[in-house]
Amino acid sequence: MIVYGRNPVREAIRGPRTVSVVWATEHAAREPWLGPAGVERATAAEIERLAGSADHQGVCAEVSEYGYAAADELLEAADAVVVALDQVQDPRNLGAICRVAECSGAAGVVIGERRAAQVTAAVCRASAGAVEHVPVARVRNLADWLASAKGSGAWAFGAAPVPDAIRYDQPDYSGRTVLVLGGEGRGLRPRVAAACDELVKLPMRGRIGSLNVSAAAAVLLYEILHSGRRLDKGT
Known about the structure:
Number of helices: 7
CATH architecture of the largest domain: 3-Layer(aba) Sandwich
Strand content: 15-25%
Radius of gyration: 19 Å
CATH class of the largest domain: Alpha Beta
Helix content: 25-40%
Number of domains: 2
CATH topology of the largest domain: Alpha/beta knot
Shape: elongated
Strand order of the largest sheet: 7-6-5-10-8-11-9
Order of helices and strands: EHEEHEEHEHEHEEEHEH
């Protein structure tokens, strides 16, 4: 796999993946985190061809394939927070959600094997390299996995702007928590929503009816971090 952009390449070097080779322009090769060795000089056009994108910031790298985590292991900690995504298909949204999950200390992100964005170079770029540090797991059936997660003592909260949903700051988010977010446009599918213990919603005071899924993830994850008393354990 080729990853591109300064943050994604830097985090790939810092993370668990094997980095085979790094290509950089003369200017980008001066970055101190690249080190004095192991960098091949290339023109911007050559890097664009390797990366398949003009959004490379002068650097790209060949790395080993992304290693997905085991979904059931994400909830091992008693206060684990996991983000579960129901058919989120935009790589930029998946990347942004992984970034906020990593920054907020979530234990991982769960995605579906089908009809969902997977961890690609574009996702690495959108996450600013966060996918190298936050585990991402794939499951065949999200509703079934939620049932299994609840069986292990987790509570599942689905984000849905429906009349019977409660305000996002009302639940008790302590303990094992799964935040479930729906795909762009259609939201949570009925079976996934039914698998949640509670549905929560954000107040919409403007003229637009909803937030982008990655923006909603940021608001809800930090509410979980705050109200679940996880901030007491350090920032």
